[in-house]
């Protein structure tokens, strides 16, 4: 469905703005994602995960390389075609409070992309919003509230609802569950597994947590300093990771029981 | 095992509305051991720590109960007597190293200031002992660090500086409130090793976390908090192997992601 070829993104260094030496955030990355499949991408802070997510979602232009959606380079699309493409590829961010307009009621936040990208009557729009709201297990009464009146878990469900309302073919979750308590995180992850089955979408879970990656996908990419260092197609446990950096990440994890501390 | 700190029936309320934040919490921290306090956001973990350290504004919060540190009730001590106790005997490591330091003062002068507020020493002596302590924690290039402002250092470095600061006054008890939450797994592993070393040096700790892995690595005893109350209090082995309360079981299950 989507193919990434030699994708590179550089930034000019902020620490020394005058230096001509750019900082390479994503470095010559190539991979392809199939229709209706879950994937996960693991990496530490600063590994270039978020930059890659923004390029895939067509929010940030790459410095080099191309992203092909059904064979078409998305960064060669006309502005109108690019806008329509946003209905197919959606991005869900980590900080759900920051991703929602604080002065806008929840209904408006979920309905806006529908209004911009799908030609629906008011009634169809309302129906779609209510439908997706129930699918993310939220009650109708939150639609008239503001983001600040919701808990962190509710906010992240709203962000998921907003992305899924468009029935996109690819959804990228950039650390979407990182700030949540473990019990809430588990519920949101299970919800996402169900939603993916139902919508038959491709999901790319970006996370720093190997346990979350293993829970969500069989196909896992490991990213380090802008490069994908390992791609495991059938990951079931820690033993499937082979690259020294992946091993290092696993060894840094705290123990599961007090017996092997 | 001798209790170093015994907390009896601690309650914290908001003065204005009477909202209960911590409700009749009792536990004890044994000397030479690590007590883990686990709970979700809003469970009262941080409120408990701040109450113990006397960091809650008495015009806004109502604290009842007692906290006996070596027989002295911390809540009854006048602030004049509490001040030498904090830092010298009980130290705290905060969650967010980025906001715990003064952003407009260099690290070196912040450390010297803290040290000299508690002990008689010259500036040079202070810098010498700071340099030694930072080196022990694996930070090289100490002169550069002391000359830096907080924003010029990484979160992991700042956290280690805060630990060094806590250790410098050789306290008997260190309270660490979510000290590794903001760090990535790599840095977290380094800090957890540090805490193990602190324990091995005979210093007691209270480690507050929402991560069972941190407890599995460090804790001797565990207190599970939920909605401001103690749900379960037992040894780390009992909590992991035979949690008696449904809430503890739910927490453990949720933190152990297994596909089934």
Low-confidence stretches of chain B: none
Distance between the termini of chain B: 41 Å
Strand pairing plus helix content of chain B: what structural class?
alpha/beta
Radius of gyration of chain B: 19 Å
In order across it, which strands form the biggest sheet of chain A? Answer: 6-7-8-3-9-10
Name of the level-1 CATH class of chain B? Alpha Beta
CATH superfamily of chain B: P-loop containing nucleotide triphosphate hydrolases
Q: How would you spell out the order of helices and strands of chain B? A: EEEHEEHEHHHHHEHEHEEHH
What oligomeric assembly is this protein in? heterodimer
Beta content of chain A comes to 15-25%
CATH class of chain A: Alpha Beta
Kindly report how far apart the N and C termini of chain A lie. 44 Å
The total beta strand count of chain B reads: 10
CATH fold-level topology of chain B: Rossmann fold
Query: What would the principal axes of the Cα set say about the shape of chain A?
Result: globular
What does the secondary structure layout of this molecule look like, with pairings?
The complex is a heterodimer of chains A (261) and B (260).
Chain A lengths: L1 E11 L9 E12 L4 E5 L6 H8 L7 E6 L2 E2 L5 H7 L3 E4 L3 H4 L6 H12 L4 H14 L16 H13 L5 E5 L7 H18 L2 E6 L2 H7 L2 E6 L2 E6 L11 H9 L9
Parallel strand pairs in A: 3-8, 3-9, 6-7, 7-8
Antiparallel strand pairs in A: 1-2, 1-4, 4-5, 9-10
Chain B lengths: L2 E12 L5 E11 L3 E5 L6 H9 L7 E9 L2 E2 L5 H10 L1 E4 L3 H4 L6 H12 L4 H14 L5 H5 L8 H14 L4 E5 L7 H16 L3 E6 L2 H7 L2 E6 L2 E7 H6 L4 H10 L5
Parallel strand pairs in B: 3-8, 3-9, 6-7, 7-8
Antiparallel strand pairs in B: 1-2, 1-4, 4-5, 9-10
């Amino acid at each position: 469905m989507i193919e990434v070829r030699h994708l590179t993104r550089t930034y000019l260094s902020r620490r020394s703005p005058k230096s001509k030496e750019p900082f390479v955030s994503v470095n010559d990355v190539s991979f392809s994602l199939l229709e209706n499949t879950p994937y996960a991408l693991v990496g530490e802070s600063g590994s270039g995960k978020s930059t890659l997510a923004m390029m895939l979602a067509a929010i940030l232009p790459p410095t080099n390389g191309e992203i092909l959606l059904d064979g078409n380079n998305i960064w060669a699309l006309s502005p109108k075609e690019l806008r329509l493409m946003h209905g197919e590829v959606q991005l869900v961010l980590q900080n759900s409070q920051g991703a929602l307009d604080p002065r806008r009621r929840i209904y408006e936040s979920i309905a806006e992309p529908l209004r911009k990208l799908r030609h629906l009557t008011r009634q169809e729009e309302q129906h779609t919003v209510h439908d997706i709201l129930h699918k993310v297990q939220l009650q109708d009464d939150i639609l008239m509230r503001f983001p600040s009146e919701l808990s962190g878990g509710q906010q992240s469900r709203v962000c998921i609802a907003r992305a899924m309302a468009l029935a996109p073919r690819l959804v990228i979750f950039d650390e979407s569950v990182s700030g949540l308590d473990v019990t809430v995180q588990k519920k949101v992850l299970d919800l996402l597994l169900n939603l993916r089955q139902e919508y038959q979408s491709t999901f790319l879970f970006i996370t720093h947590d190997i346990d979350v990656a293993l829970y969500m996908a069989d196909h896992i990419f490991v990213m380090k300093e802008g490069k994908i260092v390992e791609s495991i197609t059938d990951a079931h446990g820690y033993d499937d990771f082979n690259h020294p950096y992946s091993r290092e990440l696993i060894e840094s994890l705290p123990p599961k029981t007090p017996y092997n501390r | 095992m001798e209790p170093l700190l015994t907390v009896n029936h601690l309650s914290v309320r908001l003065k204005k509305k009477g909202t209960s934040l911590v409700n009749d919490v009792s536990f004890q921290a044994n000397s030479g051991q690590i007590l883990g306090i686990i709970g979700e956001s809003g469970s009262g973990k941080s409120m408990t720590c701040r109450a113990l350290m006397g960091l809650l504004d008495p015009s806004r919060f109502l604290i009842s109960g007692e906290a006996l540190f070596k027989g002295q009730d911390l809540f009854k001590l006048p602030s004049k007597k509490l001040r030498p106790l904090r830092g010298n005997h009980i130290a705290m490591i905060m969650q967010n190293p980025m906001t715990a330091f003064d952003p407009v003062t260099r690290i070196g002068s912040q450390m010297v200031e803290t040290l000299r507020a508690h002990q008689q020493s010259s500036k040079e002596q202070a810098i010498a002992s700071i340099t030694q302590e930072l080196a022990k924690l694996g930070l090289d290039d100490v002169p550069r660090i002391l000359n830096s402002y907080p924003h010029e250092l990484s979160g992991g470095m700042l956290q280690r500086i805060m630990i060094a600061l806590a250790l410098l006054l050789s306290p008997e008890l260190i309270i660490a409130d979510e000290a590794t939450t903001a760090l990535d797994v790599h840095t977290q592993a380094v800090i957890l090793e540090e805490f193990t070393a602190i324990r091995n040096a005979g210093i007691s700790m209270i480690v507050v976390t929402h991560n069972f892995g941190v407890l599995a690595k460090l804790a001797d005893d565990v207190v599970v908090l939920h909605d401001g109350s103690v749900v379960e209090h037992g040894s780390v082995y009992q909590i992991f192997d035979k949690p008696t309360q449904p809430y503890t079981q739910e927490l453990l299950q949720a933190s152990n992601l297994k596909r089934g």
